[in-house]
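Hi team,

As requested, here is the filled-out complex form for the 2-acetamido-2-deoxy-beta-D-glucopyranose run. I kept the field names the same as last time so the parser does not choke. Let me know if anything looks off before we queue the next batch.

— J.
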Amino acid sequence: MLIALLLALSVVLQNAAAAQKPNIVAIMLDDWGYNNWGVHAKNKANSREVRTPVLDGLASVGIALDRHYTASVCSPSRAAFQTGRNPLHVTAVNGDAGRYNPDDTISGFDGIPTAMTGIASKMATGGYSTYFVGKWHAGYASRLQLPKALGYKKSLAFLCSGNRYWTYDAQFGICGDGGGVKLTDLWEDDGPAINLKPAADCSNALPNCFYEDELFEKRAVQWIKAHDARKPLFMVYAPHAVHSPLAPTAAQLQAFDFVQGSWSRKVYAATLADIDTRIGTIIQTLKNKNLWQNTLVVVMSDNGGPIALTGGASNFPLRGGKYSNFEGGVRTNALVSGGFVPAARQNTTLTGFIGVEDWYSTFSALAGVNPTDTKAQKAGLPPIDSINMWPYLSGLKNVSPRKEVVLASTSGGGGTKTQSLIDAKGYKLLAGTLKYAASSPAINPTAATPDDAHMPKLACGRRDPVYPYTGACLFNILKDPAETTNIAAQHPDIVVRLAERMKEIQATAFSPQRGAVPKDKVNTLPCQSALANLSGFEGPWLDMPFSNSTAAR
Ligand SMILES: *[C@@H]1O[C@H](CO)[C@@H](O)[C@H](O)[C@H]1NC(C)=O
Ligand SMILES: *[C@@H]1O[C@H](CO)[C@@H](O)[C@H](O)[C@H]1NC(C)=O
Ligand SMILES: CC(=O)N[C@H]1CO[C@H](CO)[C@@H](O)[C@@H]1O
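And here is what came back:
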């Protein structure tokens, strides 16, 4: 009797403790430019084109994070977010899920190694219900790399870098692109989302077709409504916007008819305004369910905006954009919001360094779980790099515990390299050749903007950055945030100090042989397996028996 009472009491106490843990909704936008957020575009020439009232409002009741760093491309940032590693220690490669090296069954393919523990597994250990909806792009050669294996109890995801907004067919998937074979890219929990496949001719002009971000928004709303509020909620909402191939409706576009001189800028503006509204619907759903007061919302972009002619974005006043380790590629829009943000921190800006890998330890701390990844340790994989930011975000500490930012690169071949390092004083060393070396104006692109192939480059020493990084460039991003002036010649001592540190970090780089990118994509196993065993959907192909049995359910 007494034991039964004690047991009942302990269950009640556990529930009470669990209920106090904050709900966490992490929103990762795609290719969102620094100057494509109202907070940054305010009073700039493009302010009329940037309609993000919801995202602006979230910052005004939360914290704008002014120095949030990611990788310069999607897959490394997403893998870093899921695993708490700097891309240098999980993957710096931007993805071809058909790669395979049979000699390495843990890491011999694209994306997250199968023995790493995902953030959602940590949250589940802390009693959270876990949900993922949207873009995955963190590897899918094996089912052990999919959202479910990484700890998401419920998931609806497209797996490759970008699918089409109306037909959901992959843009650069395991069958390649445009070669006749089109795979649908939408995965739900254990198998292809066959019943969500749109008609093959779906487009923004036809009725009964479903814009992909509408599908994702509806799913997020449905899950929040059905969520058992006795447990804390952990949701990652990673919409398609504002990644190519952008395809808003005529009605969405019409609101931006005044945008002149660049089709891509107009389409980008419309897609951004659309996703802002959808985020507003998700926030409202949290409020309607009385979850808002105990919710932490984190919003970030996975990398900077694409600034070339067809990219549509502006990172003004920053230099560079997506695909480059200039600030415009890696210093991304970010904020935290929600009722869980302490009152004294609301409507403030924090300027300390935060890395995309730091959310792992931050969320783990809020969930009351140890962030250490013992499974990865046993497999000989790198440990997490993640630092708990909650003391800084909540106001317990006034300076960020992150003292340096490490930026990786795969340029020059030969595996993963450290390309850049920023120290606590803002000195930033850049090595190798940097693409997208232009500064985008506030209104970008225009008809005069170069296309991707003609974007300027900046030579900062050898194309393949290796110690002693001879010819490296040095900027101070606190004094010169736009990286206009290379001060390497004036500060040889600082160049040497940062180069020594880069060498130290480079010694820890994780660069497994992931196998070659298949040349004939259609006639190789990944593509043929998807056609034969996954009903023509993108999905895992290394461990077919499992995938096949679930695909046929
Ligand atoms: C945030 O602060 C600004 C001034 O810095 C003020 O104009 C604005 O009303 C504040 N917003 C909220 C929601 O408190
Ligand atoms: C489909 O799955 C089966 C069973 O695992 C496998 O033997 C076969 O090779 C797969 N088909 C293709 C084309 O990969
Ligand atoms: C081996 C096996 O189970 N193969 C099955 C895979 O799935 C397809 C249908 O999607 C079946 O036709 C195969 O028999």
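Two things worth flagging: Residues 60-61, 347 surround 2-acetamido-2-deoxy-beta-D-glucopyranose (ligand 1) (CB under 6 Å). Residues 15-19, 545-553 have pLDDT under 50 and may be disordered.

Thanks,
J.
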